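pinging the channel bc i need a second pair of eyes. not urgent but kinda urgent?? the chain im working w is below, pasted from the shared doc
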Amino acid sequence: MALVFQYGSNLSTVRLNGADRLKGGAQVVGVARTVAKYHLAFTAWSEHNLCAAADLVADEGGRSIYGVLYEIPDDLVFGYHPQITLDRIEGEGHVYCRQWIAVMVDDNASAPLEAWTYQVMTPKWNLFTEIDYVRHLFIGMKEHGFPDEYQQYVMVRVLRNHPALQAALDILLASLEDSCAGLSR
């Protein structure tokens, strides 16, 4: 089994475990945050999403980035064999590079854990993300109870990348609030 830290659209467990991805093979370990400082950016072109996808850009002036730590069977992570793997989904070796990252699980005050994650190999700064991609980030953050201040940070990063998404993002966030309120009734 491999520990994998996901910080982009695979924050949504429903997306990651969907029929076109890992088919239920990923088990949530918990919410985690990076030990090193980064900025969340949108620097990879995603052929699947037809927009810019998330990246961790190292920056000593940055912050810890939150994500979901998953436990995934090795055969669903590594390689390009016939079944869908995380390497194939992420474009490992073409778009992203799989590498080790130190993370802290929020309810665990002990030592950092080492997990695999994917970072963009050659960041491109002139790409725009789109609301259909961003929706997965916000669904995942709500699903896993990310801190409000981090959700605000992601909203700022999305709008810095693509200011024209403001109205669509407002509608998305309102619909997620409504659906969460409906669950608590």
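so The mean pLDDT is 94. and The longest helix spans residues 166-184. — does that match what u expected or am i reading it wrong
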